[in-house]
Write a structure and sequence with these properties.
The complex is a heterodimer of chains A (about 160) and B (about 425). Chain A is of the alpha/beta class and about 160 residues long. Chain A contains eight helices and seven strands, in the order E-H-H-H-E-H-E-H-E-H-E-E-E-H-H. In chain A, helix 4 links the parallel strand 2 and strand 3. Chain B is globular. The chains are: A alpha/beta (about 160), B alpha/beta (about 425). The complex binds iron/sulfur cluster.
């Protein structure tokens, strides 16, 4: 998997209430959720972003609740993927279970600002900063089992395949 | 090989004799939990992937607590999806309004989760049940769908951090203060992906209510689970509740830990965590002069009878400050009844409080105490993120019931000793 896009940068501990505030959880309609994506972190975010953009987070991205509404809102908003220094574990788990591409990189955050363009080569395990002087950055390798989840198209498909075996 | 309690429980739910940190395992689930926010998605995923029958109708628990009794039409629709599913699949542990309470207070109270269990819940505070000596962790809705269908789920075995609490607690210091202090020390990602094992002589003296409060907030330090070694306090709590067998596990003396953190309890005073992270904790004597508009006493963290007793002991013969909103939310119907019998309601009403039915309510900004821009609430809940209890420009200060009650009287952040 290879894709590129413009980035939006956020700080440490972006929690699930910032990604999609609990006051909107009386629905799980993806488009309704997407309308409020990142609202409490940046109220203008949905006005500024374009489909295909990439979110950059600091430490512990997605901390807080177990709500799958968070990756759902990000995906439905058209975000192509998330790169953070580290992820909170339930968000990490949910993203793989649902097929939202996420990557850990400790270096990227310090090297880019809003509007920069990056290219992610998941297979090759690198991120390139377009027009950037730095060498390609290595992404934390994804454990084989998680790669299998993505290849199968998420957890439920993975289970269905396992049952058919 | 020696194992920690977390590793032992995980291995007992697989066909492996032992597991060690980093291993990816498939484990059998004893209890799978969902609520009115997460279960509808799980049910949708369950149906879309062709699910016809649940793996065991007695091992699935569905609790409408977040926006129930239905706060609006959308919430009513979500609750209905869960209710219909519970009927269709004859789910034993479905709780209708009137029986339902905040899930993580309700399940232990009913004896549904027991020591030695492996529990998953589509709610991050599922880690609460670690207080019983169970492995319990929060998952997403898709995970819940998978567990409802197969009775199994994948896990990565976590490393364990051991927290050892030494010494005696000072007056008014509760489990909430110990955990807020701990999170303040290690940070909101200080235990990321790891198990938090709470031990030491100060822990053995804690009631189950205090232990639930501490395990509840393990996720606020990034932890996968929080866990206590079960003892006589655990036994006394579960004996009359359990309807099935349970097992006590403990860590081997030479088990391997990621790290061991010693905490001197005698130095800890009642805590308050300032906006907007649970780790912004400090002693109440260092809180400064902060005017507060509202106090929420309730939630899965501190809505148990022991918490209400502490609040009542502070509020007895006193009244909330002029113009202050004091909202008490017993976590379950049993807590509600008990508080009423003990006369705590009179104390609360005399203090100018309003008593809510059992619900999550304002804890996640749902209803029953939402904040306007610029308003501040002290709360016995577990999260003080931006916008958590209402307007993004409002503020939440986390504390135990003693500080939440004293603050109501003072109208600004205060502990019982400052009144
Ligand atoms: S009381 Fe608050 S933290 Fe607990 S389950 Fe309800 S919303 Fe979540």
């Amino acid at each position: 998997m290879k894709f590129g896009g413009r980035i939006w940068k956020f700080g440490d501990n972006i929690d699930t209430d910032a990604i999609i505030p609990a006051r909107y959880l009386n629905t799980w309609d993806p488009q309704a959720l997407a309308a409020h994506c990142m609202e409490d972190a940046d109220p203008l975010f949905m006005k500024k972003m374009r489909p295909g953009d990439i979110l950059i987070g600091g430490e512990n991205f997605g901390c807080g609740s177990s709500r799958e509404h968070a990756p759902i809102a990000i995906k439905a908003a058209g975000i192509a993927g998330v790169v953070a220094k580290s992820f909170a574990r339930i968000f990490y788990r949910n993203s793989f279970n649902m097929g939202l591409p996420i990557f850990e990189s400790r270096e990227l955050w310090g090297l880019v600002e809003d509007g920069a363009e990056i290219e992610i080569d998941a297979g090759g395990g690198v991120i390139r900063i377009i027009g950037g002087a730095t060498e390609p950055l290595h992404i934390q390798p994804v454990p084989p089992f998680m790669q299998e989840l993505i290849a199968d198209g998420g957890l439920m498909n993975h289970i269905a395949k396992g049952k058919a075996k | 090989m020696s194992m920690t309690i977390t590793e032992k429980i995980l291995s007992r739910h697989t066909d492996l004799d032992e597991v060690h940190p980093g291993m990816l395992i498939n484990a059998r689930v004893d209890i799978a939990l969902g609520n009115d926010i997460t279960a509808p998605i799980a049910i949708d995923v369950f149906r879309k992937s062709g699910g016809k029958e649940v793996f065991d109708r007695e091992k699935i628990v569905l609790v409408p607590d977040h926006f129930a009794p239905n706060k609006d039409i959308e919430s009513a629709e979500q609750c209905k999806i869960m209710r219909d599913f519970a009927r269709e699949h004859e789910i034993t542990h479905y709780f209708e309004v009137g029986e339902a309470g905040v899930e993580h207070a309700l399940l232990p109270e009913k004896g549904i989760v027991l020591p030695g269990d492996l529990v998953v819940g589509a709610d991050s505070h599922t880690c609460t049940y670690g207080a019983l000596g169970a492995f319990a962790t929060g998952v997403g809705s898709t995970d819940l769908a998978a567990a409802m269908l197969t009775g199994e789920l994948w896990f990565k075995v976590p490393e364990t951090m051991k927290f050892v609490y030494h010494g005696k607690r000072r007056p008014w210091v509760s489990g909430k203060d110990l955990i807020l202090h701990t999170i303040g020390r290690i940070g909101v990602d200080g235990a990321l992906y790891r198990a938090m094992e709470f031990t030491g002589e100060a822990i053995r003296e804690l009631t189950m209510a205090d232990r639930f409060t501490m395990a509840n907030m393990a996720v606020e330090a990034g932890g996968k689970n929080g866990i206590f070694i079960p003892d006589e306090v655990t036994e006394a709590y579960v004996r009359e509740r359990a309807g099935r067998k349970y097992e006590f596990y403990s860590s081997d003396p030479d088990a391997l830990y990621h790290s061991v953190i010693d905490i001197d309890v005698e130095k800890i005073e009642p805590q308050v965590a300032f906006p907007h992270l649970p780790s912004n904790a400090r002693g109440i004597s260092e809180a400064g002069d902060v005017r507060i508009d509202q106090s929420i006493i309730g939630s899965c963290t501190n809505g148990r009878i022991e918490d209400l007793r502490v609040a009542a002991s502070v509020l007895k013969g006193r009244h909330a400050a002029h113009g202050f909103r004091l909202i008490i939310i017993p976590a379950t119907p049993a807590v509600y009844r008990q508080a009423m019998h003990e006369g705590l309601f009179d104390v609360f009403l005399d203090a100018g409080a309003v008593i809510s039915l059992p619900t999550c309510g304002p804890c996640l900004g749902g209803y029953m105490g939402i904040l306007a821009k610029g308003e501040r609430s002290v709360a016995t809940t577990n999260r003080n993120f931006v916008g958590r209890m209402g307007h993004p420009g409002s503020e939440v200060y986390l504390a135990g019931p003693a500080v939440a009650a004293a603050t109501a009287v003072a109208g600004r952040l205060a502990g019982p000793e400052q009144l």
